[in-house]
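retry 2 of 3: previous attempt timed out while embedding flavin-adenine dinucleotide. Reduced batch size to 1 and resubmitted. Inputs unchanged:
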Amino acid sequence: MALSAASVFTAPRHPQDFLQLVNPLSSARQLRGVVTSVTPECSGSVTIAFRPGRGWHAHEAGQYARIGVEIDGVRQWRSYSLSAPAGQDPAITVTAVGRVSRHLVESTRVGDVLFLAPPQGDFLLPTGPRPLLMLTAGSGITPVMSMIRTLVPRRPDADVVLIHSARTPQDALFRAELATLAADHDGLHVAHRYTATDGRIDFTSPADLDALCPDWRSRKAYVCGPAELLDDASQMWHDHHVADALSVERFETALLTDAGAGGRVVFEKSDKEAVADGSTTLLEAGEDAGVLMPHGCRMGICRSCLVPLRAGQIKDLRTGETHADEGELIQTCISAPCGTVHLDV
Ligand SMILES: Cc1cc2nc3c(=O)[nH]c(=O)nc-3n(C[C@H](O)[C@H](O)[C@H](O)COP(=O)(O)OP(=O)(O)OC[C@H]3O[C@@H](n4cnc5c(N)ncnc54)[C@H](O)[C@@H]3O)c2cc1C
Ligand code: FES
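retry 2 succeeded.
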């Protein structure tokens, strides 16, 4: 009612446009958040806290959110784990590795507006009390940090072992806070593994894990970090018949890099074209050409990026399989063109 009355005075612009000038979080069309702090972490990483607007729901420890930023006039989306404890305003901790993360780390300022999708993910704490083992490396510590911040100060019965790998002490995210938490709470034990001096954890036998956490087989375990760590840990838990006790969070998917010659991609509805090599995904090719490509996780999990194939052949960069059925829904984030491809987007 208030809006329709307002529209009498604001036509031809929509009242939402004027409300947005007053409050950038008021858009009903796109969930947004305003940055409330930017805190430098160790080299190349920052924690960005934000106050989300309408449409956001409180996150659970371990979940992630899709964050959108505009770079050179194109909105780019990436997923980031929420590092703040459950029950507090969200924050992400971003490590600069590529285009979007570098932009977030180097250019984000208090008061900036981020585009958001609500928290999601099932990398979550168990529902009842259990001894836990967290195995993390690099920026993979972020969802686990939310779990530790949520659980350890609030639960006297918490029993958490964190084994975190970083190249050097200076590269170890949250090192000082973890040391304080471990000193204040008997239920948290932190072991750092500095790969520059100690080497990586050896998963060819259980000896390293046995030394770091002798009862690892009986703990509910979480692993997050580079693909190699996730694959090695999954194999170890599988070999020791405790695979059900391991939860894995992947930040990236291994894709073939020598997948073929690539080809021309025609984005029919957008009336745009691109030429992509055999290791460039259809999603990346579309974004680079300025096509509004639907996507979510960008790693072959969520299927938000499905687009119908109109003609041509594509290759699944995870498996090398080819697909050429007209009308088939293609996961553009993990597929590359083989020759000329027409997409219905
Ligand atoms: C569920 C989920 C949670 C995530 N949480 C975080 C988080 O808390 N903090 C964070 O910094 N990133 C996180 N990521 C990764 C993030 O979404 C981006 O992939 C990352 O920031 C790289 O994007 P970019 O545009 O900067 O690089 P791009 O230009 O898209 O890619 C550059 C290269 O970096 C590789 N890459 C992706 N992630 C990493 C990484 N963590 N370390 C090293 N190389 C990487 C990619 O495989 C690619 O080869 C998460 C991803 C997922 C799916
Ligand atoms: S964006 Fe999630 S499967 Fe492609």
